[in-house]
Design brief:
Elements: H1 2-22, H2 28-37, H3 42-134, H4 152-166, H5 174-235, H6 274-277, H7 281-292, H8 296-314, H9 325-348, H10 355-377, H11 383-401, H12 408-439, E1 445-447, H13 450-459, H14 465-469, E2 474-476, H15 481-500, H16 507-535, H17 541-556, H18 558-569, H19 583-610, H20 628-643, H21 649-671, H22 681-699, H23 716-727, H24 730-736, H25 749-766, H26 774-800
Antiparallel strand pairs: 1-2
Helix pairs in contact: 1-2, 1-3, 4-5, 5-7, 5-9, 5-11, 7-8, 9-11, 10-12, 11-12, 12-15, 12-16, 15-16, 15-17, 16-18, 16-19, 17-19, 19-21, 20-22, 22-23, 25-26
Keywords: Exocytosis, Transport
Domain Exocyst complex component EXOC6/Sec15 N-terminal: 49-217
Function: Component of the exocyst complex involved in the docking of exocytic vesicles with fusion sites on the plasma membrane.
Length: 801
């Protein structure tokens, strides 16, 4: 029983091993599972059987490897020997193939060409044969793709006939299908060629815009000149026209609108139009082709887009455009040329561009133009260049206005440029005024003869009955700068008027512009030049006196300037909105400044003389003569006040009073100087002599017009102080102090105390033996007593205050 089971187990294990060796590894799992399903110890015997089988296979593999090893080694060795020969053979084969291909390429190409030509020849013969059946009458050849692009429309019509009429009749043939497939390509080629022509046109128009714009602006200027001449003739009542209008040349939809009002030398010249300068046929042809092909919208969008790009290029100025008028002229010519072309396209085509599109372009361009002009004109300091720019802008605006474009903003810009123009004029005239003032001799104008006198009054409105009665030679009160200034103000008005012309403004507005600009000239430029002139150090008293006289006459001439402006503008001065010239206040201010400078310089001169004073403050006794410096000062004042005779009375009187007050104040300050410690009675006597000379000068009436001793009152403080010390009348002073009838009413106790203390110190040190003399002791005691009383008065005044 046990043996039978053992035999069965061995047999089963042998079967499992054979199955494992012969089947796929994916099926090994179920097979092995059967081993474990048998008797409990069967798997161990199976493992032993499996190990034995593996050892058996390993022995067989080893035997086979040993048997074939030497043959494998020999085969590898042979392969290595053959490899070099194989590589050499491969190179020879490759080279042979290449030479064979090169040798046969030309033959192959010619063969293919012959085949293709024979096929074409056969197809063409068949096509001609079949087409002759479709064409009635005499046979004719239709060649769409050969030479018909010069006549695009005819080619398109031919293709349309072929496509709709003839090809359907023979559509069963293959060549008809090829032809039908070729027609769309031909249409695209026609579109491309026509678009290429359009691009050439756009490039050409970019180059010719300058010439077109120049022609348009020249004709607009001639038209405006003609209109103004006609209006002038009409205002003069001339019934005869300047010339016949039968030769009028217009350029509305095909160019420029205007009258050929050229000079007589150019009267017979033919007026160039936009079509004379540019061939517009590429635009018409391309538009028509795209319309026929049903792609008009694409063409319109492309054209508008390209023109917008060109507009932006045209609007870009050169960086140095502001340096010359030619730069501005070229800029304007290009812009005008661009919009003349657009106006022509607008009217010559139906809907390629619309009025809305051109208006949009113009508004965009106008904003850019205004910004460019505003920027570049700000760099210009030459009024002549600004004026030429204004004239160009006016012609530019008139030209485009003739084509229906709105130009109001350009005229608004001109008002801004007008302000800048006035500023450049003011700067220019400031230099003119300075030069006039520098070259003036500040002396009355001498006239030797009647002719010279008439020459002066023809340049300046001067009328004086007394001077007219005087015999020749004689002198006019103003200096040479007065008529020159008056002439230059009129020249400024003319220059300002030049800018106001052609601005399409009323006479009242022009009158207002002229008056405002003239007011700026007077109140700012001329006034500033006068103020600077007055403050210059080299201008002396004589020159200041002449400046005051000059400003007086210029002030009187302001009414003649107003009449001058009125005659230019024909606007009555009684008009409500008429501005007045501010010259009166300008010259009054300059005169007041000159008067103040006279007072200042006069006081400075007095100070210079005072600095020459050299008093011996400890002198024992005066020599009885006034100081030399003071006599020189008085002589200077006399000669100076003689020059003041031409000044208005109040000015001379004010100057004289100011000088006397300043002299009295300076003398008082000299006497009370804190650095001055001692003053003797002899010095007081000498100082008194000098003050007497000042009083004599004041009483001699150096300037007429003072009432009584008004001028002497300038020295009253000094006089009462010196009298108090000369007479030594302290009892009266102290007794009457504070009384309105006091003899020494103008003497301040502090002033008297300061001077008395200087004399007290002198009395102490004057003589070491003075204390032994009774008179000197009594005087010293009196001084000390007076000093105490004066101090009490000063202290009382300070407490009261």
């Amino acid at each position: 029983m046990a043996e039978s089971e053992t035999l069965e187990t061995v047999t089963e294990h042998e079967r499992i091993l054979q199955e494992i060796e012969s089947t796929d590894t994916a099926c090994v799992g179920p097979t092995l599972r059967s081993v474990y399903d048998d008797q409990p110890n069967a798997h161990k015997r199976f493992m032993e059987k499996l190990d034995a089988r593996i050892r058996n296979h390993d022995r067989e593999i080893e035997k086979m490897c040993n048997f074939h090893h030497q043959g494998f080694v020999d085969a590898i060795t042979e392969l290595l020997k053959v490899r070099a020969d194989a590589e050499k053979l491969m190179g020879q084969v490759t080279d042979t193939n290449r030479r064979l291909q090169d040798a046969g390429r030309e033959v192959t190409a010619q063969t293919e060409e012959v085949i293709r030509c024979r096929i074409q020849q056969r197809n063409m013969a068949t096509t001609v044969e079949k087409l002759q059946l479709c064409i009635p009458g005499k046979p004719r050849k239709v060649k769409v793709s050969e030479g018909s692009f010069c006549r695009y429309y005819a080619a398109l019509k031919t293709m349309e006939q072929l496509e709709n009429i003839y090809i359907p009749r023979v559509s069963q043939y293959r060549f008809c299908q090829i032809m039908a497939e070729t027609l769309p390509k031909l249409r695209e080629e026609i579109k491309e060629i026509s678009m290429s022509d359009l691009k050439d046109f756009l490039e050409s128009i970019r180059k010719h815009s300058d010439k077109i714009g120049e022609t348009a602006m020249r004709q607009a200027q001639q038209h405006r000149t003609f209109i103004s001449a006609v209006q002038k003739q009409a205002s003069l009542g001339c019934a005869k026209p300047l010339y016949s209008l039968n030769g009028r040349t217009t350029l509305q939809h095909n160019g420029l609108v205007g009258e050929d009002a050229a000079d007589e030398e150019e009267g017979d010249d033919e007026v160039l139009t936009a079509q004379d300068l540019v061939d517009f046929s590429p635009v018409y042809r391309c538009l028509h082709i795209y319309t026929v092909l049903g792609d008009r919208e694409t063409f319109e969008n492309y054209y508008r887009k390209q023109r917008k790009k060109q507009a932006r290029l045209v609007l870009q100025p050169q960086s140095n455009m502001h340096e010359t008028v030619e730069g501005y002229r070229k800029y304007f010519n290009q812009i005008v040329g661009f919009f003349v072309v657009e106006d022509h396209i607008l009217h010559a085509t139906q809907g390629l561009v619309t009025r809305a599109f051109t208006d949009e372009l113009w508004n965009m361009a106008l904003s850019k133009i205004i910004a460019v002009l505003r920027t570049h004109s700000s760099y210009c300091n030459d009024p002549d260049l600004v004026l030429e720019l204004k004239n160009l802008i006016v012609i530019f605006a008139d030209t485009l206005q003739g084509y229906g474009f709105s130009v109001n903003r350009l005229f608004d810009l001109l008002f801004e440029i007008r302000d800048q123009y006035n500023e450049t004029l003011l700067k220019k005239w400031a230099l003119v005024f300075r030069e006039i003032f520098e070259e003036d001799n500040y002396s009355p104008i001498p006239v030797e003869t009647e002719e010279e006198y008439k020459s002066v009054i023809s340049r300046f409105p001067f009328h004086d009955a007394e001077i007219e009665k005087q015999p020749f030679p004689k002198k006019l009160p103003m200096s040479q700068s007065v008529p020159q200034i008056y002439i230059q103000v009129k020249e400024f008005i003319y220059a300002s008027l030049k800018f106001s012309e052609s601005l399409h403004r009323s006479s009242t507005e022009i009158d207002d512009m002229l008056r405002k600009s003239t007011n700026l000239l007077l109140t700012r430029t001329l006034s500033g030049c006068l103020q600077n002139l007055i403050k210059k150090p080299h201008i002396g008293l004589t020159e200041l006196v002449q400046i005051i006289i000059n400003t007086t006459h210029l002030e009187q001439a302001c009414k003649y300037l107003e009449d001058f402006i009125t005659n230019i503008t024909n606007v009555s001065p009684e008009t409500v909105h008429t501005s007045r010239l501010y010259g009166l206040s300008t010259f009054k201010d300059a005169r007041h400044a000159a008067e103040g400078e006279i007072y200042t310089k006069l006081n400075q001169k007095i100070d210079e003389f005072i600095q020459l004073a050299d008093y011996e403050w400890n002198m024992g006794e005066s020599d009885g003569r006034a100081s030399g410096y003071l006599m020189d000062l008085i002589n200077f004042l006399r000669s100076t006040f003689q020059v003041f005779t031409h000044l208005p009375g109040k000015v001379a009187q004010t100057a004289c009073m100011s000088a006397c007050k300043h002299l009295a104040t300076s003398l008082m300050q000299m006497l009370l100087d804190t650095e001055l410690k001692q003053i003797s009675m002899g010095a007081i006597q000498q100082f008194n002599l000098d003050v007497i000379q000042c009083e004599l000068f004041a009483s001699s009436e150096p300037v007429p017009g003072f009432q009584g001793d008004t001028l002497q009152l300038a020295f009253i403080d000094l006089r009462q102080l010196l009298d108090l010390f000369m007479v030594w009348d302290w009892s009266t002073y102290l007794a009457d102090y504070g009384q309105p009838t006091s003899k020494y009413l103008r003497v301040n106790p502090s002033t008297a105390l300061a001077l008395l203390e200087k004399m007290k110190d002198t009395s102490k040190k004057n003589n070491i033996f003075s204390q032994f003399r009774k008179n000197d002791r009594d005087k010293q005691k009196l001084i000390e007593t007076v000093v105490k009383q004066l101090r009490s008065l000063v202290n009382g005044m300070s407490q009261h205050s």
